[in-house]
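Below is how a single chain appears once it has passed through the pipeline. First comes the sequence as given, then the structure the pipeline wrote out for it. We keep one example in the README because the format questions we get most often are answered faster by looking than by reading.
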Amino acid sequence: MAPSGSFLGRAVALLSAFRADDDDLGAAELARRSGLPRSTTHRLALDLVEAGLLERRGTRVRLGLKLFEIGQRVPRQRVLRDAAVPLMSDLREATRQTVHLAVLEGREVVYLEILGSSGGPRLPSRVGGRLPAHVTGVGKAILAFSAPDVVRAVLEAGLVKASERSVTAPGLLVKELETIRREGVAYDREESGKGIVCAASPVLGPDGLALGALSVSGWSTVLRPAVVAPAVHTAALTLSRTLIG
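Resulting structure:
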């Protein structure tokens, strides 16, 4: 889809060109990803640098600190993250593994906080990064406790393959979501990345729908998801009660 002709539309297209694993980008790549002419990309990047939304890094640019500062003011993110961090710290201490907090946005999960473990795997996730919901434990935990139209939108968009073990058959995903609703725990069995497994559980609002999810992730050779699942589920239930109360 071509970016909007307005300044705001072009700015959003340019900022959205950055992916989770990008440190910085050059003008040519920014133009290609955003769909903007290179001359427009150059002028717009200068304006965004002046506003603090982008930062120069030699001849390249990266996302600016002001974006992070603005993001911290988003009410859902701030309230959920602030309430979750103490429980995430306890969960990391108990499991000695990486703990994630994520929310659903569209068909992807966005990671609000990640508490890493020493010696843990280099995970494909990062704070502010995104992954397809259906290949992650947190994403499946959220989808299992989301409104039917949310799940339908994910299924109708097509299930992309992130690894050899990603579930791409809609029927299989629907069955898995039914199991997650019964058990309250979702698993990633090397579906988001080779060798990475996790157990996740939803954080629920007063209406019973997911606000987000917590997970514990690690190497498949070290972490046994079924063993940490009760601790993850307990932490998510505690966080749900904290937010409701």
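The two ends are 43 Å apart (CA to CA).

See the next section for the split statistics.
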